């Protein structure tokens, strides 16, 4: 059964039937293409083609290669999380989201700190999309039309709460949950947050509210400059819907083996949840 045609829009399902019950573990792992050049990214996508569905294009690669970075991933039949953390005046944020959609990004993020007007303007970019059934997106299917392009999916719009490089603490937890609540109030599909805050976010915003968790490290891996990190199993058990991993894969002698190990950890945790 193709899970991609079952999810019309994350957030439209009942609270007890979130993405976790529908999508296999390998389709919930996002590999960050935090590399300095397009050929490095293409090489990694090719190496992981049979193992990974989603790839994250962030500031480093997008600054180096621009829209070609997104195109290179999509041309290989993979899905893109465009991690540019838009934070600007409302009109600029909305225009950036519109441009990201037209590039083909299926996850897009923006800072909750940009303010409610910016969040709502970003949501309004997608409000007029007509939802239709389509196998082209694991999230939703919609059409936006202009003189240049026809978009046949509706991406996830996610709010950035706090960076995982920041220290942990009660004040961080409270701030993250508050940011998640504001993001939901403004119509976003979910947030980016560490696994340490995921359970509290789900309790406050509902299980259908999507949490994408960065800072994922296999057990025993060095933390680098990340502070609020966790293992794949712990993230899944906390309720994370998608997991983002970068350096443990990028720096591995055998990236395929690392991904396989992480997926196995996720599958074991899913079986226990």
UniProtKB/TrEMBL annotation:
One of its GO terms (molecular function) is orotidine-5'-phosphate decarboxylase activity. It comes from the Bacteria. Gene3D superfamilies: Aldolase class I. Keywords: Decarboxylase, Lyase, Pyrimidine biosynthesis. Pathway: Pyrimidine metabolism; UMP biosynthesis via de novo pathway; UMP from orotate: step 2/2. The keyword Lyase applies. Residues 28-262 form the Orotidine 5'-phosphate decarboxylase domain. Substrate binds at residues 34, 56, 83-92, 164, 217, 226, 246-247. The active site is at residues 83, 85, 88. It is an enzyme of class 4 (lyase). Catalyzes the decarboxylation of orotidine 5'-monophosphate (OMP) to uridine 5'-monophosphate (UMP). Homodimer. This is Orotidine 5'-phosphate decarboxylase.
């Amino acid at each position: 059964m193709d899970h991609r045609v079952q999810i019309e829009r994350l957030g439209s399902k009942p609270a007890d039937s979130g993405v976790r019950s529908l999508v296999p573990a390998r389709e919930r792992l996002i590999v960050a293409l935090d590399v300095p050049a397009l050929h490095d990214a293409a090489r990694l996508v090719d190496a992981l083609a049979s193992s990974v569905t989603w790839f994250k294009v962030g500031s480093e690669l997008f600054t180096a290669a621009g829209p070609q970075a997104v195109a290179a991933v999509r041309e290989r039949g993979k899905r893109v999380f465009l991690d540019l953390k838009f934070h600007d005046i409302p009109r600029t944020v909305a225009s950036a989201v519109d441009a990201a959609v037209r590039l083909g990004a299926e996850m897009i993020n923006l800072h909750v700190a940009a303010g409610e007007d910016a969040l709502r303007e970003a949501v309004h970019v997608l409000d007029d999309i007509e939802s239709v059934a389509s196998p082209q997106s694991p999230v939703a299917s919609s059409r936006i039309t202009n003189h240049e392009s026809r978009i046949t999916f509706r991406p996830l719009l996610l709010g950035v709460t706090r960076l995982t490089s920041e220290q942990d603490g009660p004040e961080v937890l409270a701030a993250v949950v508050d940011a998640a609540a504001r993001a939901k109030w403004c119509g976003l599909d979910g947030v980016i947050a560490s696994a340490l805050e995921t359970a509290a976010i789900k309790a406050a915003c509902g299980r259908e509210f999507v949490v994408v968790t960065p800072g994922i490290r296999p057990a025993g891996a060095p933390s680098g400059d990340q502070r609020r990190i966790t293992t794949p199993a712990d993230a899944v058990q906390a309720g994370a819907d998608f997991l983002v991993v970068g350096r443990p894969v990028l720096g591995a002698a055998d990236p395929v083996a690392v991904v396989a190990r992480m997926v196995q950890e996720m599958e074991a945790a899913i079986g226990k949840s």
